[in-house]
Amino acid sequence: MNKLHVVRFEVIGDSGRYDEGEQEDGTDVKTTFAFYGLAMYHANVLEHGLVNALALARVMEAREQAEQLLRDPWEQRFKDTMKELVRRARRHAGDDEGLVEALTVAADRRNHLAHDFWRVRAEDFCSDAGRAEMIAELRADHERFQETDGRLHDVVMAPLMAKAGVRQEMFDVLHTEMRERAEKRDGR
After folding, report:
1. pTM as predicted
2. Which of these, 15, 59, 133, 185, has the minimum number of CB atoms within 10 Å of its CB?
3. d(CA 61, CA 17)
């Protein structure tokens, strides 16, 4: 029999109201949403790192084989699910089985956050103690995504960039240009 799941919440007491400031213990509703956003942001950064690594690997492969690419490898990989990206990344991880495992766990956690987190934790969200547990889980996910992205960069992306002749300074210039455009938008 199918179950009806309730995801709406009503906070018990006044401590979780949207219009109140942060609680001293950091378990307010806004803080919970903020940590969720941070975890999902870093999951997306990791996903984009996978796309960049796979697309750059495809470009390098085509260059070595004097093959002309007919489709944009980034556009192709952005259509893949994260699980598919992890599957494709296996061959680029070399002997680092730990990286493959970390990517698999990260993809599972990302999917949990995107599809199940609020349903599974709906009751917890209604209390300070429950939100404290949620925040701890989200902090761990955020750290997991950051660490896995760093490992992906070190094991796969950095060697590919070196092989392609792409230097860190190139990324630094692009980042500076992006920040300058953003500051200009804000009138600075």
Report:
1. 0.83
2. 185
3. 54
